[in-house]
Amino acid sequence: MLLRTRDSAFRAGDKEALRKVRAKLSQAIREAKRAHAQKIHRCFKDTGDIRHMWEGIQAVTNYRKTSPSCDSDASLPDALNDFYAQFEAQNNVAAEKSIPPQNDQVLCSTVAEVRRILYGLNPRKAAGPDNIPGHVLRECADQLADVLTDIFNISLRCTVIPICFKSTTIIPVPKKYTVSCLNDYLPVALTSIIMKCFERLVMRHVRTQLSSSLDPLQFTYRSTR
């Protein structure tokens, strides 16, 4: 808007208006530079926030991500779908329920643990086949904690995982700008976020049981390493 006003004043030969609009334009440029510098500073202020740091790097380098172009031919995605579907088609073994011994103590989750897991969900994560987004589970943690705790404990007690928790949606993401073969796709598996919460609860229990037997030089899949 200021640029148009400046050009109009220049073409009209109005020196006074041109002087005023140039002053306003210079002030607007200084304010924009100051706001941009503050934005970059906020991105690098918290070194623990990796996402904001990358946003700052992209802003400094003026990086613009270009999405790969996909061919309209659906034969390659269909072939990728057939490839992963064959594993489920070959799985003809029926699931068997295993009964734990009477003396074994079955793992039991508490409502507080489930609520803590729900509060810690990343709302930006993509939903799985159940289409339940993470921000819904996070916002409704108080209402869903009791229900999910019962489901998790019943699953642990019966040693059976619901089929809906084991479903996976595989998204073929192009790795190149021009896709010509199946290797040009990166398969990304989207699982149920509720199942991920269940896995985290079990993982914490397993980690506490195995912490003393793990090699001290093992750093993979261990926190604070």
Automatic annotation (TrEMBL):
Organism: Electrophorus voltai
Superkingdom per UniProt: Eukaryota
Protein name: Reverse transcriptase domain-containing protein
